[in-house]
Amino acid sequence: LTTPAPDPLAPLAAALADAHGRSRFGGWRNVPSQDQVKRYEAAGEETEVRYRHTRAGLAADGVRVVHADAGTVVLEVDGVRREFAVTRYGDEVYVNAERLIALPRFPDPTAQLAPGSLVAPMPGTVVRVAEGLAEGATVTAGQPLIWLEAMKMQHQISAPAAGTLASLHAEPGQQVEPGLLLAVVQPTHIQPASGGIA
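The structure corresponding to this sequence follows.
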């Protein structure tokens, strides 16, 4: 017996069912813009699907959306209609008999960063880097390293621990977005004292 191949239309059906009933003001634009994007994991594979809100309803490239509501999606491909039953339990989505996991739209960038990583907490501009700061420099816990300006206020980015500056990606005048890696501080590991108490 072999496991059936994942249905390539299942993630799109899941996304269209999830989009049904959402505010037109949250997704529809009167000027063409970027598609809405959703990501799903199925059988260990990650898939990204795109769709858009139009005056006539939901639409996606390569298929005709005949019907879409929270529980049923009907798609037409090359003149053939296919119906999908969609059920959602938290992040788990079942499309007919296929199980998908809805992945977060904005993954936490810090989850993919090394310990000691300093990221921009908000959009802004790098206005200053500590004098003499370069890769390999020794820093102390709490030492200000980078200054950002956002909304006419300056914000200090400080070393989270004593250690060595492993990398520096910020420079004055640079525009940054939230989550952008600015620097990495490699903490100094304190070796336990040898010997016992006399």
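The domain at 109-187 is CATH 2.40.50.100 (OB fold (Dihydrolipoamide Acetyltransferase, E2P)).
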